[in-house]
Amino acid sequence: MMLAVTAWLGAMPGFMTPLLLAALGLLLCERAGILNLGVEGVMALGAMVGAAASLGGFGPGQAMGLGALAGLAVSVPFMVAVIVFRAPQIPAGLALAAIALGASAALGRGAAHMPFAGLAVLGWFDELEGVPVIGRMMQQDGMVWLALILAAALGLWLARSRGGLRLRAVGEDPATADASGVDIQLYQLGAVAAGSLLIGLAGAYLSVGGSNIWTEGMVAGRGWIALALVVFAQWSPLRAIFGAALFGGAEALIPRLQAMGVEVPVYLLSMLPYALTIAVLVLMAFSKRARQAEPGFLGRAYIRQDR
Amino acid sequence: MTAFPKLPRRALLAASLAAGLTQALPLAAFEIQGEPKVAFIYAATARDGGWNEALDNARMAVEAQLGLEIATVESVPEEATALKNAVDLFTGRGFNVIVATGYGYSEGVLEAAKAHPDVAFVNASGATNAANLEGFYTRTYQGWYLAGMAAGATSESGKIGIIAGFPVGVVNWDVNAFALGAQAVNPEVETTVVYTNSWWDPVKEGEVAQALLDQGVDVIGNNLSSAAPFIAAEKAGAKSVGFQLDMSQHAPEGHLTSVVFHWDEYLVPTLAALQDGSWEPSEWGAFPGMADGTVGITPLSDDVPDEVKAQIEETAEAIKAGTFEVFAGPVVAQDGTVVVPEGEVLDDGGLWGMEFLVEGVKGTLN
Asked: What is the ipTM of this complex?
């Protein structure tokens, strides 16, 4: 039993990290008032490019960087459409998802089903190997730690820095921000660009850090879960860590319970992350605090003349 | 929230039996006009590393052996309208033999067969049949039994595992056969099955493999076609068994054998029969097995002891000769009930509708 718990806690960060990275990316976009429904597709493209780059001889770090850049590149039309031309965000986001999913499938043909080395576990905590539970939990790759640091840094930046406060103002009340001299479109472009990088990185981590192989459809709904995760986290990067741990923990639990031969219905187990998503969304709908946390101008187009 | 895009492929094949029973049609030879002009319709990319690639390999074999030139179209969604467009495009250009490759095409291909009564249709893992349409699958459990023997003989911990997609008949028979084969060489062996509830999720498949390895499993059978479980097994120094295609490239050290399709053994004679006008589609669909060569195992790794190799060879010959049946009674389910009494053999209906796991398997179906 102890062994199983250790194995579960050891596996959790690997599941948590892509969700956390994607949620941080989305959170940045949404704090600037942009609802980015393209996340599932952008992750798919990041995963494909990360795998293709690894197969092409790039190291795991470079491969994930290229995956992140691909996430940015494919999001450029979306950014132009919704920020520059103020197109409706929901259809534009869904179009981005479809385009990026299609692009990853079409461009990835030559990279499918070919294993590569991928990201290795960091050796920093090898001395802790003998410590029960913790020893195994510390055996993670660098991206796990980087994602946690990013979450903390982003939380601090949003709460404490001038730029972070301005970004929040843009998503909360663009008219006021505009009046006080903030360049709305510049902040939104910056936020969505950085967000797309993070979402692409999340996808690249799935292939380079996780499976060490790429196939079509491997994101398997994790992008949509990240969208719910942002609501669960009430748009706070620090709370996103706990949310990602919860969702990642649920995802990591399923195969372990099955491998232990625990008699739990498989269909119910597979439903777990999604049922959790809906439960969280319903609970949040009842929470006054959560509603207050939502950026006031999320999903709407700001046009100065209408002020 | 997520769709299961691959669900229609083979899922719910169990229902095919019921569908087949109500669609009894008179048996007669079907002739096409002129030389066969053949087109393949794939639900995903043809070189997908698994299911479609096995069929695509057979396509090339057909081209070489029968001197045919075959047209292909890839990534046609498994829905009636998409299939209809693809079929109409080919028939409009004079194609008279359509090879579809997915369970999800079952309904659409039946409609197409009715709409084009002068065109011959076959559908891999298809659940529908007509005067000019034959669904075909193969007895994969025979190969999995042999692979199970190899797994049982090489496991040091006495624990083996199998990663599978959805708990439906065609998958359950592989799981049970794998366990029964292992038990044949090591009665104490424990087989853990994990259903991922997806045909395609390498992240999950890799993690399932890791979870099994953590539980002390040292031979992993992968009933799905991603390479992730092989990578995990190889890293841990465990053995592995592949499916659909030869998976040895993904696990050069630990690969024991792969249960592989040889669809050319069905498609070459079928298309040859269409060439000479003697094709008689079966009203129940074609269901060949190892005796017909449509399924088999790749050469066993040297980790399998010689005497077990000989035993596997012997069993394979007995399966081909029809003197050995994998699901011959007594077959005992997990809960101890006898599902196939001594002296009886599970019939095809029982195979398609297999809703039990055998004794010695850890895991659950629903």
From this structure: 0.71
